[in-house]
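Recap slide: Carbon-nitrogen hydrolase family protein, sequence and predicted structure.
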Amino acid sequence: MKIGILQINICKDINENIIKISKIISNNNADIFILPELSDRGYLYNNREELFSIATELEKNILINKLKNITLENKKSVIVGVAEKDGDKIYNSAIVIDKGYLIGTYRKIHLTDFEKNFFETGKENKVFEVQGVSIGLQVCFDVWFPEISREQIDLGANLIFISGNFGGVTTYEIYKIRAIENLTPIILCNRVGKEVNNNLSATFLGNSTIYNYDGTQLIFPLKEKERYLEFDIQEFRKNSNIMCKDFNFERKKEYFCRKERKNTEISKKQI
């Protein structure tokens, strides 16, 4: 399966973003393309009212509709991050478009404190069948919480795609850990560029990459520059390595710390 990663700068002008994104996807031949978090209108807004005034419902989002047309024509799939309006709420969502149809939506579950000023929290973890493969989706800060990835593995995900908007190296380093502990390739698309609002300035790292199930890097990233990356991935989630022949069996074990234990005191030793 050929993966295309669009490590690009995103601006507040959705029409300008559409031109750039459409050109890259139309001129390349990946099976699944992935774009950054909030690829339609950018990230750094002054307040919720400003974002709410321009965010749209999914069926009215002109970037999504353009990608439907492109994927219908070339029989490809796209994962794209958008600001999704639903009634009086806004979600930081990752959308799956497959061969002209919107087949799924993942709403970011773990929001940073800054993002809580704009977005509602997603409530449902999901996997999606895309190009014959079950995939999990996450958005940036979600990766800090291993439960998200583990639940997606339990739901049958064989690849995990993550759209990002981060600038620091700590988040980047966590992706490798998630790949290793789940024996599952992680595909990361993180944006580049700079955004400002009245109070803040943010520079985005880039460093988009693919980590294989054993943590080896399949694409070597480029920091802070626009770049289209492509890789034909041949291996998916594994269930064994040299240390264990059945990780699924091990994951099903109940741990003492996961059980409800009333009136249990923590023992303290004096040294």
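Residues 74 and 102 are 15 Å apart (CA to CA).
Helices lie at 14-26, 48-54, 62-74, 146-154, 169-182, 247-251.
(End of recap.)
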